[in-house]
Every structure is written in structure tokens, then in C-alpha cells.
Amino acid sequence: MTAPIQPPTLPVVWRPRRARTVPRAMAVVVNIATIGLAAALPGSWMLSDRLMMIALGVLIGAGLLFLTRPKIVGEEHRLIVVNIVRTRVLDWAEIVHISMREGEPWPTLDLADGSTLAAMGIQSSDGDHALRQLTELRAAVTAKGEAGEPDGA
Length: 153
What we know:
Keywords: Membrane, Transmembrane, Transmembrane helix. This protein is an alpha+beta fold.
């Protein structure tokens, strides 16, 4: 039998690995490619055309870097879930349950108000790293005041 998991020391940040590495590498490749393409264009292309091509590469790269936002931050009195577009701040007691079924890309937080929240800061594509992070998050939720099941009426 394994020993119970100790909650992590707060504050702690859980972040995916691959979901950060791949978009960063792609952003670099896109920028290098657009700069190279702008330099290799025929002389009939104007400077403004070349600069706009580079600007397009920078915009695509920025969009790719936007995909690296997801994280989960555990602080003493709250949990901050940062997904690609939205950020949600929760009290620890708002979290009823954390589930991540096999094949799901990230865990789902079941909240006391009956809603759910995707927590993209832990991604199943990270394998054992994701499992370790999920176990730590569950231990932190249990230690910091997991909410009970909502009363069904």
C-alpha cells in the first residue's frame, strides 16, 4: 500500500509541458520561415510587402504563444485556473470533485454551484507528469477545504 500523498507547499503552479513546448517551437519556426520567405521574394515585391509578411509571421507566432497560457495556481486561500481565453478564481471550498477519465485531455473541476470547469493547466499528453500534478491538486483540494456534495432538491 502506498503512503498518502502530502499536499504540495503553497503557492504552487501546475503547468503542462508539451502544450507549452510545441507552440513555442512552432512560433519560432513560423517566424524564421516568414523572415526567410520575405528575404527570398523576387525583387518586384516592395519593402512594404516583405514587412507585412514578417508582421503576419509575428501575429501567427503570437497566436501560438497564446496557447501556452493554461496553468493552475494554488495559493493559500484560492485556486486560480487559467485556460486559453478565460481565468477563473475559486475558493478551495468551491471545489467538490476533480475528475479526469482515461482519454480526457485535462481534468474537470466539479464546483459547489453545480457547474464544471475545465482545468487545462494539467494535460494528459504529459503522461506521468500529468498524473503527478493531478494527484498533487487533489491532495491540495482535500487539505484546503473540499466542499461537500451539493444538496439535491
